[in-house]
Amino acid sequence: MQEVSQTTLPIVEMAKGNEEFRQVLWTGKNTQLVLMAIPAGGEIGGEVHEGHDQLLYFVEGEGEATIGDTKAAVQSGDVSIVPSGSFHNFRNTGTVMLKLYTTYCPPEHAPGTEHETKNEADADE
C-alpha cells in the first residue's frame, strides 16, 4: 500500500483490516502513523527508541505491554505510552491477531515501509 495523503482516515477500521506486521501509512516532518498486526504468540520485540516517543493504540486482541520495568495487560481501547529512551516490548497473549496503530514522533521508519512478518522487519533493520 502506498502512503496515504488524506488528512482524515478511518484508522480503527484500517487497523482491524491490516494483516501485515508493519505498514507505514503516513510520514510527516515530525510524526509517523503505522499499522501493526502481531500474530498469536508473537511479539514486536524488545527495543529502545532514542529520540522517538511512541504511542500504541490497541484495536483488537489481547497482549502484554512491557515498558521499562512495568508490565501490563493491553486490549482493545487501550493506549500505551513509550517515552524516548524507554525499553519496551509488546506480546500477543491471545488467540487472535493483536492489532494496533502507532505513532512515532519523530518518524522511525522510512516512508512507505511495509513488512508482512516480524522476520521480514528484523531482516530489514
From TrEMBL:
Residues 106-125 are annotated as: Disordered. Residues 35-102 form the Cupin type-2 domain. Transmembrane segments: none annotated. It comes from the Bacteria. Gene3D superfamilies: Jelly Rolls. Residues 111-125 have a biased composition (Basic and acidic residues). Signal peptide: none annotated. It holds the Pfam family Cupin_2. PANTHER family: LIGAND BINDING DOMAIN PROTEIN, PUTATIVE (AFU_ORTHOLOGUE AFUA_6G14370)-RELATED, QUERCETIN 2,3-DIOXYGENASE-RELATED. This is Cupin domain-containing protein.
